[in-house]
Every structure is written in structure tokens, then in C-alpha cells.
Design a protein that fits this description.
Blueprint: E1 8-11, E2 14-17, E3 20-25, E4 33-39, H1 42-60, H2 64-80, H3 82-93, H4 97-119, E5 124-127, E6 133-141, E7 144-148, H5 156-167, E8 171-175, H6 182-192, E9 201-203, H7 208-217, E10 223-227, H8 230-242, E11 246-250, E12 255-259, H9 265-277, E13 287-293, H10 294-309, H11 329-344, E14 348-351, E15 355-356, E16 364-365, E17 368-373, H12 378-381, E18 388-394, H13 397-404, E19 412-416, H14 420-429, E20 434-437, E21 457-458, H15 468-471, E22 472-480
Parallel strand pairs: 7-8, 7-10, 8-9, 10-11, 12-13, 12-19, 13-18, 17-18, 19-20
Antiparallel strand pairs: 1-2, 3-4, 5-6, 6-22, 11-21, 14-17, 15-16
Helix pairs in contact: 1-7, 2-4, 3-4, 4-5, 9-10
The structure holds nicotinamide-adenine-dinucleotide.
Nicotinamide-adenine-dinucleotide binds next to helix 7 and helix 8.
């Protein structure tokens, strides 16, 4: 049990004070220090990996019932505390309170889902081509898994990696994002009281370049599951391939939302505004490119602009707020820079883009909408990761599809249409891991696979029963009797 301080790591079942601290600051109110969290060194990673290694075989031998009990209990506690944890999430990350509670709810449901999956572990028995021989195909845990997560979903992403890791019998060393470590720390506290044997789950807080690097390069870490930027994902991939560790990377997006002439205008506008601006646009699945056919273009642009003028940007904890602040000063500056880049590239800024001041000092920004943009502009090529969307005008469906696929990313792609023909064609030909028909590009279920193609993802899918692919190794056994 932790003594109440948050500048601690969980290593081998013990809460150990970190050598230094990182301040966790509320982006809605810079005078509010959420807490001082651990800033660890490589040594703490070495200790955590050693602790995980010591118990990984024991946990690999645990029964489905033991795994169910642990995962179900964690899910129950998260769900029971979703208002409190959602509040912390809103405070440290800047999502609105309902968004924070919603994300926490999702994390609880994920643990419940994998509790059920633990009871459904199965293999296959297949007749051999040789007489008297049986073939059995079973899944075994990979051992110690490193889990490295970003700040933008500080409880859901850790949950959707940690829950399957434990469900499939692995030990874990987890590093939360340094910008929003509070939810990760609470999750670790819940896990520490869940009945898991000490050392099966370890958390080391700190920077990516020290703690994340040490996890990635440790020879006893059998696999690394990472979500974050493309640049860091690439570094991790190179290191893991060098030492032949398993990798699963979920990286950025530049997600298209295609709006065809036959779309329901009101529905399309709601979907675009939700997908592009909610959660302050800080979602890897956000609709940052709105690709609109000529017949509906002007009406669509007018309606989106009108809608975002009325979005209430403010303190994440204020019940009136619809769009919270950007997570940090660096992120805000990066987004403001992209707004300038868009203007200089000749895009027409019809609304927003400027920094806003509110009662409390924070990183507020007016949602920005660009029109008259072209696919080759940097604002349509690079991930901005903020409340900025650009409209690309196209002639017809074929041009829309080709522009939608003209990106190095491939996470989520949406289409608004009343035509089954175009919806089905888009499902088949959109280069994306997830396709949304008359739904926002962001917002997914917790029990089905999540992930992308091209530069957005690498390795096997996350979530649902498909997560078994990363967290287990397949063994084929031949038995002659
Ligand atoms: P980031 O890549 O900067 O950091 C992600 C994590 O990696 C953090 O915990 C960080 O400390 C760690 N890290 C940094 N350098 C490292 C290194 N050298 N070695 C090991 N670990 C290191 O990303 P971010 O700014 O936290 O998150 C935003 C990015 O995440 C965006 O690009 C967004 O699209 C992406 N994202 C993707 C998904 C998805 O599922 N595709 C989901 C959410 C966020």
C-alpha cells in the first residue's frame, strides 16, 4: 500500500520513492500543481525488470480463475471510482470532465473484458498427417512486457495494454507519459491491491529518453507495446529489432472524413465537429482532413464554421466547457505554428486558431477551420494533434477516395453518405485499419481490434481477442502415443 506520496514507483510490490520529481501541471490552470511524480533513472528500470523476471513464470502458470479474479476486481474498482479518476484525468490532461469520466469508464470495461477473456483461453487440437500423432497448438505468454504510453489517453491506453498483458500471463514494466502520469499512478495503486503476485506489475515513472529507453533496450524485456509519436515509435522499433524483441506500435494519424453530396448535412456536420475538435483534437483518430465533394461543399463549410463558433472553450472542470485546453505549452506552440504554416501556404482560415485567455491561465486555443486547402499542403500532410481541421474540395467520390488515401498514415477513415454503394466501396478501398460510415473517425468500441495501416501502426492489433497475437507466442506440439 502506498503511503500517500505520488513520487513513487511500484517495483516488486513495494512503493519506492523516485530519485527526483516531475511536476504534473493542470493545463486549465497553471497555478494548480496536480502532483509531483517520479523522475526515475535507469537503475529503477533494472530493478523493475528483475522483479518482473523473477515472477513471470509463476504468473504464466496462474489459472484462468486467478486471472479473472484480478482483472475483474481491477475493473470493478476503476468503475466505482470513475468520477474521481475522471476528475484527475480532466485536471492533468485537459479533457472535459465528461470526457475524462468516459475514458475512465472505458478503462474499467477493458479490464472486465479481459477478465472474461482469461476464462476463454483456448488452444487447438488438429489431426496430424501422420498416423498416431496429435498436433496441439497452444499460446504461451511472452514473458516480461514493456508498456510505454502517451499523455492523450492516460488511463484508457495503459488499460488496453496492461489488461491483455496480464490476461495472457505476462509480467509488466509500465511507464506512463511524463505529461500526465497521475492516472497511470492510480492504476498502479489499484493493481497493487488486486491480488496480483508482487512483481507481476511494475511501474516506473520518468522521461522517455531515460526510462522508456532503458525499458526498450533491456535484454529481458521480451516485447514492447508502445503508443505515441511516429518518431519515437521508429526509434523503439529499431532497438527492438536489433535485439529481436517483439514490438507493437500505435502511432499518429491524419484521418480523412469524406463528405459526399448525398450525405445528410446535419449528421455530417455533427460528425465532423465531433471528430475534429472534441478532446481538443488530441486524438490519434481525430478527423483532421475533411474531404468534401463540390455539391455540398459550401453548405457544409458554412455549417461547420457556424457550429465551431459556438463551441465553449474553457477550463476542463467547468460544466459548461465543450473543448478543454491543449495539454502543454509546447503542444500549444506547435499547433499555433501550424496555423501560421497553413496561412502561409495559402489556406483560408475561416475561423479560430488563436490562443485564448480565460479566468484561469491555461493553454486555450480557439478551434480552427481552414478551407481552400490542397492535399500537398503541410497542414494536410503532417499530424498537428490539436483542434485544427482543413477542408479539401473534391469533384467526386473517386477523387475523394484518392485524396483520403494520399497520406503516410492509415489509422481511421470516415465517410458520410447515404449510398450503400459508396460506403461499401470505401470500406474496401480506404487505406486504414478502421473505417467509419456515418460516424466520427474517433470513438471506438472496447471489445474489438484497434489499429491502423501504413505509418500509423506496426505489429499486430491491439484490443479485443486480437491482442493475444502480441502478448502470446504460438507453440505447436506433436504428440505420438
Ligand atoms: P511521444 O512519442 O512523445 O511519447 C510517447 C511515450 O514514449 C511517452 O511515454 C514518452 O515518454 C515515451 N518516449 C519518448 N521518447 C522515448 C524513447 N526515446 N524511448 C522510449 N520511450 C520514449 O508521444 P506523445 O506526445 O506522448 O503522444 C502523442 C502521439 O501519440 C501522437 O503522435 C498521437 O497520434 C499518438 N497516439 C497514437 C495512438 C494510436 O493508437 N495510434 C493513440 C494515442 C496517441
Amino acid at each position: 500500500m502506498n503511503n500517500g506520496s505520488v513520487n513513487t514507483n511500484l517495483i516488486g510490490g513495494a512503493w519506492i520513492t523516485a530519485p527526483a520529481v516531475i511536476q504534473n501541471i493542470n493545463p486549465s490552470d497553471l497555478s494548480d500543481i496536480v502532483g509531483e511524480y517520479g523522475h526515475s533513472e535507469e537503475q529503477q528500470v533494472l530493478e523493475a525488470v528483475a522483479a518482473a523476471n523473477t515472477v513471470s513464470e509463476k504468473w504464466a502458470d496462474s489459472t484462468p480463475q486467478e486471472r479473472f479474479n484480478v482483472l475483474d476486481g481491477i475493473g470493478t474498482e476503476i468503475l466505482a471510482r470513475k468520477e474521481e479518476i475522471g476528475n484527475l484525468l480532466a485536471r492533468e490532461e485537459g479533457k472535459t470532465l465528461p470526457e475524462g469520466i468516459g475514458e475512465t469508464n472505458r478503462a474499467g470495461q477493458i479490464f472486465k473484458f479481459y477478465a472474461g477473456e482469461a476464462l476463454r483461453l483456448a488452444g487447438e487440437k488438429i489431426p496430424s498427417i501422420r498416423p498416431g500423432v496429435d498436433v496441439e497448438i497452444t499460446r504461451q505468454p511472452i514473458g516480461v512486457v514493456g508498456i510505454i504510453t502517451p499523455w492523450n489517453f492516460p488511463i484508457a491506453i495503459p488499460a488496453w495494454k496492461i489488461a491483455p498483458a496480464i490476461c495472457y500471463g505476462n509480467a509488466v514494466v509500465f511507464k506512463p507519459a511524463e505529461l500526465a502520469p497521475g492516472c497511470g499512478w492510480i492504476l498502479a495503486d489499484i493493481l497493487s491491491r488486486s491480488g496480483l503476485p508482487e512483481g507481476v506489475f511494475n511501474m516506473v515513472c520518468g522521461s522517455g529518453t531515460t526510462v522508456g529507453k532503458a525499458i526498450t533496450e533491456h535484454p529481458d524485456v521480451a516485447g514492447v507495446s508502445f503508443t505515441g509519436s511516429q518518431a519515437v515509435g521508429h526509434l523503439i522499433a529499431m532497438k527492438c529489432v536489433e535485439r529481436k524483441a517483439k514490438i507493437q506500435l500505435e502511432m499518429g494519424g491524419k484521418n480523412p472524413l469524406v463528405v459526399l453530396d448525398d450525405a445528410d448535412l446535419d449528421v455530417a456536420v455533427k460528425i465532423a465537429v465531433n471528430g475534429a475538435y472534441f478532446s481538443t483534437g488530441q486524438r490519434c483518430t481525430a478527423s483532421s482532413r475533411l474531404i468534401v465533394t463540390e455539391g455540398i461543399h459550401d453548405r457544409f463549410v458554412d455549417a461547420v464554421a457556424e457550429s465551431i463558433k459556438h463551441l465553449r472553450v474553457g477550463n476542463a472542470l467547468d460544466s459548461e466547457t465543450q473543448i478543454g485546453p491543449v495539454v502543454s505549452e509546447d503542444q500549444l506552440n506547435k499547433i499555433l505554428e501550424y496555423v501560421e504554416i497553413g496561412k502561409n501556404e495559402g489556406a483560408n482560415l475561416v475561423w479560430g486558431g488563436e490562443r485564448l485567455t480565460r479566468e484561469t491561465e491555461g493553454f486555450y486555443q480557439a478551434p480552427a477551420l481552414f478551407t481552400e486547402t490542397t492535399p500537398e499542403m503541410r497542414i494536410n500532410k503532417e499530424e498537428i494533434f490539436g483542434p485544427v481541421a482543413s477542408v479539401i474540395r473534391v469533384k467526386d467520390y473517386e477523387e475523394a477516395l484518392s485524396v483520403a488515401n494520399d497520406t503516410e498514415f492509415g489509422l481511421s477513415a470516415g465517410i458520410c453518405t447515404s449510398s450503400l454503394k459508396y460506403a461499401r466501396d470505401f470500406q474496401k478501398r480506404a487505406d486504414a485499419g478502421m473505417v467509419m460510415v456515418n460516424l466520427p473517425t474517433a470513438g471506438v468500441d472496447y471489445h474489438v481490434p484497434f489499429g491502423g495501416t501504413k505509418g500509423s501502426s506496426y505489429g499486430s492489433r491491439e484490443q479485443g481477442s486480437y491482442a493475444a497475437e502480441f502478448y502470446t507466442t504460438v507453440k505447436t506440439t506433436y504428440i505420438y502415443s
